[in-house]
Amino acid sequence: EKDQVIPEFSIDRCVPVRVDSTCQLVEWRGVEDISKIKGRTIKLRFQLTSGQLYSFWISPYGSGASHGYTAAGGPGFNSAVDSLGRHSPNKFAD
User: What is the pLDDT of residues 60-93, one digit of tens each?
Assistant: First the structure.
């Protein structure tokens, strides 16, 4: 909001993500969870070096479950809704 960086969530405090995954947690040093920004209007900026961003979502669950629809389900999903996140045994989640 107002183009101001929230200090706890600056790029300098972000732990680099160096994996090829469709379910990867992004963390910031000294931040236990992102509840501080709950309900606030925010902008996200992604900085990549030799990488590509396929998609992203913000989940209120530690598992990363999106609770979004997975079309017709998929390997490891027990329904058409992602309620498992990283706990899904499908080959796409780490």
Answer: 777 777 777 776 666 666 777 777 776 665 544 4
Separation in Å, CA 75 to CA 16, 52, 87: 29, 24, 12
DSSP state of 17: P
Q: Is the per-residue pLDDT at 55 higher than 70?
A: yes
Closest CA to 67 of 90, 92, 45, 88: 88
CA distance 94 to 78: 17
The burial class, CB within 10 Å (0-12 / 13-18 / 19+), for 76 is: middle
CA distance 49 to 18: 10
